[in-house]
Amino acid sequence: MNAPAPAPATAPLPGQARVLVVDDDLSMREALASLIGSAGWPVESFASAAELLQRLQTPLDGPACLVLDVRMPGMTGLELQRELAQTGCKLPIVFLTAHGDIPMTVRAIKAGALEFLPKPFDDEALLGAIAQGLAEAAQAWQAQQDSRALRARYEALTQREREVMQWLLQGLRNKQTADRLGISEVTVKVHRHRMMEKMAAGSLPELIAMLDRLGVPRADPGMSQGPEGG
What we know:
With 230 residues, the protein is α/β, with parallel strands linked by helices. It is built from nine helices and five strands, in the order E-H-E-H-E-H-E-H-E-H-H-H-H-H. It has a five-stranded parallel beta sheet, with helices on both faces. Helix 1 links the parallel strand 1 (18-22) and strand 2. The chain is elongated, with a radius of gyration of 25 Å. It starts with 17 loop residues before the first strand and ends in a 16-residue tail after the last helix. Residues 150-215 form the HTH luxR-type domain. This is Response regulator.
């Protein structure tokens, strides 16, 4: 049995890109960590698919690319790829193998692998594939962070602000909205201003695009009428 994988030499900062290496061969893990580290990327190394899955019990706090050996004891690289897909984990994967064949390569690529490189691999080819994977991962990670921030802004809206927003989306003017809600036009303007400010929306089309991203339905805003304090 191989010795446990060494701890990464550099602990990634929150939001920093990193490379996850899974290979049951200790010398290969160390060589990969050295090569990838020389390119400036923090590396986390694992001796098995089980070790990686255990690590992923704690969500990653930044984009990552997975460099994965195909043939390993226990769960193989292809089986790990399938397991990650089933759990919704969409890490870009660069496969490495000394025993690859065309059907295996096709299967991995069809399942979403970024690259399938034979051992011994070309250093530049591997680093190029990792760079591409990290670029894709960074884009996806940033989109996820933006979506979470947008959801938080929406959740910060009061019920009244959401009602004003829904009437606004129906095309009603401030006075019409005030009549529907039984409040003053000045109060509607205040709620509308706060709502747009909280959502960080500069215009109605921008607000609509935000709500579409969140999947917020165009509800019937007439559900709560009559004066409301605040």
